[in-house]
Amino acid sequence: MNAPHTDADFADWFAERARVNDQRVETIPFSALSGWEFDGTTGDLRHHTGRFFSVRGLRVREPGSPTVGGGGPREWSQPIIHQPEIGVLGILARTFDGVRHYLMQAKAEPGNVNGVQLSPTVQATRSNYTRVHRGGSVRYLEHFTDRRGRVLVDVLQSEQGSWFLHKRNRNMVVETDDDVPVEDDFRWLTLEEIRALLHRDNVINMDARTVLSCLPRPHPAADGRDGPGHAWATSSAALGPDQGALLSLTELSSWFTDAKTRCDLTADLVPLTGIAGWRRTPTEITPEYGGRFRIIAVDVTAPHREVPHWTQPMLAPCAPALAALLYRTIGGVPHFLVQAQVQEGCLDKLEIGPTVHCLPDDHHDRPPYLDVLGSLAPDRIRYDRVQSEEGGRFFAAENRYVIAELDEDFPTEVPPRHCWATLGQLKELLRHSHYLNIEARTLVACAEALR
């Protein structure tokens, strides 16, 4: 076993892995892409194999209604990443000395702001693990594709619904009793050690955060294999998801189903050449006015990856977003204020998101509760960190994640698109697919890391 016992142990190992896995990433013109080309008819940017992903056009119409934010209808077009295949995000677990440990990987991604971050044991698209790129095999994959051990988590979850079209990954945790050879880029960590690292910027990557959020809640009679756990999670488990909750789980699910039923947003694929308000230059596909992201191309040299050199397109955000979860105590139980968040790339067009998710400097589209967050005293902020989004498709994508406590006299009556839920209820919903979006799942993982 190689689990670190001090911060210095981990820091030395992590710094060494960052040095060994050093990579070079340079932006290049689209004409320098190898294996990628713009379709002569549609303008879509595709790989010559037809695998991996493509950049296509999406036309969206959002009629005005109370459920989706009110106001008149909105229409827009944008590029979107289309990757219909389902990848594997898997964390291998094993118990040492009565405490469960998780095998984490120090992995470099071309879009990571700091090169190496902690990822799941396996983080691979289907194209990668079937070796379309003709690279090396994915280590430890057999534990998840063959399910060698006890399955603790196995659920399909979405990714960024404004950047991906219908993107899903299989989130898995599998526990083994077998001796597992640990390679240099991998390290056993306890859940407490991983959660402590969530209090640092850009250490635990997005794929690890989503899998961690799906871990089962600790039971009050648990054997302690995951350590002491957070008081919120433990108390929620002791009470059950409905006890002490403002709404029952059935009522919460009904609220969400009603929001999906009332959502009239339509999103249709169109040729990339046909999207209005965007222009293609030799080096980027960019919005003509403002905008939230652009499409670029990069050249990557990473000697220790399955493929040591490649080129690819990437989505580059124009600015960091804010994802905030507000909570208050109701009847002695913390309740989180969540929203039915419309995202054009989601399968059902919306999922449960944080209280606030926006570009904070966008003065034309200020969401409810952004000003409430801004008015809170500093001692009400329980969590405030910058975390990276997926580094394999997004270039230098960071969001600010915040958890803040409201006063106990804050109104419990909220707009129709918002709802109160306990942490136990959110964890219960995470046993199923397509309830919580990726930003909400990150915030659940961060909430469980709070002391």
From TrEMBL:
Organism domain of life: Bacteria
Q: Which InterPro entries does the record match to this protein?
A: EvaA-like, EvaA-like_sf
Q: Which Pfam families match?
A: Hexose_dehydrat (PF03559)
Record-annotated dTDP-4-dehydro-6-deoxy-alpha-D-glucopyranose 2,3-dehydratase domain positions: 8-215, 250-446
Q: What is this protein called?
A: NDP-hexose 2,3-dehydratase family protein
